[in-house]
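Sequence only, no structure available. Ideas?
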Amino acid sequence: MQTTSEPLPSPKVDKLRNSRLVRLEALGKVYTEAGQHRTVLDDVNEAFYEREFVCLLGKSGSGKSTLLNLISGIDAPSNGHVFIREGDGEVAITALNEHERTLFRRRHIGIVFQFFNLIPMLTVLENVTLPLELAKRSDERPRAIALLEQVGLGDRLNTYPDKLSGGEQQRVSIARALVHDPLLLLADEPTGNLDSENGEVVLSLLLEMSRNAGKVLLIATHAPEIARRADRVLHIVDGKLV
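Reply:
I predicted one. Tokens follow.
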């Protein structure tokens, strides 16, 4: 398996060179703690392409979640830029203000969290349609139902999250992350709170649904079994992608 921070020079990715969806340019993040500066990410340069599954490995605290937060616009970098394709061009989301980044994320980015982040007082269907409501796209409710059927939960639309198993809750979160048809799907330890059987189901769903729709799937994990399924594996070591 190839582990390089440069775009993978394989025939598969060569075909995708004209289908770049995300570009990172000299991206860096420095935190100040108790008057001390701590560099988490330093001069990160990378690109991601349609239908590509990239696994991001690194020990706890290495910066995996930080990188996902910068790519999604949840957090702002200390330096550098994140460019994401929109239409025929690309947008530097790092040049947007917080409100603009939120709106951009609602249009183009889906996120799957380790601990599901479902809203307990909403039903399964209401959780999945929430991104559509926020984006004022409630007319696309049939898409939410279709996605829930695709992840095997078409008969649980009116169930509340606390009545679901962990694997079922994560399947709901996958449907929610995809309901607004994002370009980019980010997953932060998506199987870390599941047993091996449910973890395999969730990973297979993420791969199938992202590739079929031509999306980038970027998973941050410490699980080698996930890395073995990836097109590329990037390691964060001392703030660098290697």
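Strands lie at 20-33, 36-49, 53-57, 79-86, 89-92, 109-112, 184-188, 216-221, 232-237, 240-241.
Hope that gets you unstuck.
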